Amino acid sequence: MNWSEYLENYKRSHLHPVNRGLHAFGIPMIVISLPIFFWNWRLGLILFTLGWIFQFVGHAIEGKPPAFLKNPAYLLVGPYWWIKDRILKSRSGARL
User: Fold this and answer.
1) Nearest alpha-carbon partner for 82 in 41, 36, 42, 51
2) Which of 26, 39, 45, 56 is buried most, with the most CB atoms less than 10 Å from its CB?
3) Which pTM does this prediction carry?
4) Cβ distance 60 to 22 under 8 Å?
5) For the chain, what are the domain ranges?
6) Nearest Cα to Cα of residue 96 among 2, 19, 20
7) Dist CA 62 CA 13 (whole Å)
């Protein structure tokens, strides 16, 4: 499977606007928490935990399990989606 196929599958599991919103905050919290662990493990742990709570609450609202439970590659697809959705598309005014 290529990145485009992973991204399309990921988008099909994230259609509810609340789930998308929670992921828009949760994904960067998780990613940012990883290097922060080295300087302030408590802050890193708080960000990591809150980020995952946002993810799972979003999936509960969506009614679909997280894609990474079927394929761990989706742990990388989430940040890729966030970058494309929030950063690259914001320049053109379009949304994924």
Assistant:
1) 51
2) 26
3) 0.80
4) no
5) 18-92
6) 20
7) 8
